[in-house]
Amino acid sequence: MSTLGAVALDDIPLFPLNTVLFPGGSLALRIFEPRYLALVRDCTKNGQGFGVCLILSGTEAGLPAAPAAVGTLARIDDFYTLPDGLLGIRASGSRRFRVAHSRVRDNGLVHGEVAWWPDEPVVPVPPEHGLLATILERLLERAGGEHARAERARFDDASWVGFRLAEFLPLEMSERQHLLQLSDPLARLDALTRCIPRFQSA
């Protein structure tokens, strides 16, 4: 751990991907590159997570890609062997962070010194955004899975509703990244409300 002014920074491995992981979200990955096999081994051994950041330039495989500065910590929930013999993992999104500094290790793995963002407060979904909770409920009913079995109270949590809609609506990755970087759950709901007419007219 190091400090930048009064802010404590933690060093974590980064996994740049063509996706955005939100707090409370889930992620399934197929692991085959040696640097990411080492990442999974180390995280499993140490009980630590890794940072998921959207790729701004470059690709997931090959040379290290340029990641977005804001990402989400992923914690490995399970790992298994895929039918093709490769390693598969399931991970869940935890805390958000901002990368202060990054470096590429000899094995090609990107590490970042990150400052953690505080968890968002639990704020009720205001009446003017009640439609968003209804839309999310319908999306989850069709999709199934863990979130479809969420407690009813979750659908009155502005942060949870916003993050889940940002995952399930067919948004551009740049839009998802913007929603991840908002620190106000009500501002996120405002942004999502502006997106809804686009999908209703499709």
Write up this protein:
InterPro entries: Lon_prtase_N, Lon_prtase_N_sf, PUA-like_sf. This is LON peptidase substrate-binding domain-containing protein. This protein has 202 residues and is α+β, with helices and mostly antiparallel strands. The protein folds into 2 domains: 2-116, LON domain-like (Archaeosine Trna-guanine Transglycosylase, Chain: A, domain 4, Roll); 127-200, LON domain-like fold. It has helices at 34-46, 130-143, 158-168, 173-181, 185-200, and strands at 2-4, 7-17, 26-31, 50-57, 66-67, 70-81, 87-104, 110-116. Strands 2-4-6-7-8 form a 5-stranded mixed barrel. Helix 2 packs across helix 3, helix 3 runs antiparallel to helix 4 and helix 3 runs parallel beside helix 5. The termini are far apart. The mean pLDDT is 90.
Strand content: 25-35%
N-to-C span: 48 Å
In percent, how helical is the residue content? 25-40%
CATH topology of the largest domain: Archaeosine Trna-guanine Transglycosylase, Chain: A, domain 4
**Helical run tally:** 5
Integer average pLDDT: 90
Question: Which spans have pLDDT < 50 for at least 5 consecutive residues?
Answer: none
Large-scale geometry: globular
Domain Lon N-terminal: 9-200
InterPro entries: Lon_prtase_N (IPR003111), Lon_prtase_N_sf (IPR046336), PUA-like_sf (IPR015947)
Protein name: LON peptidase substrate-binding domain-containing protein
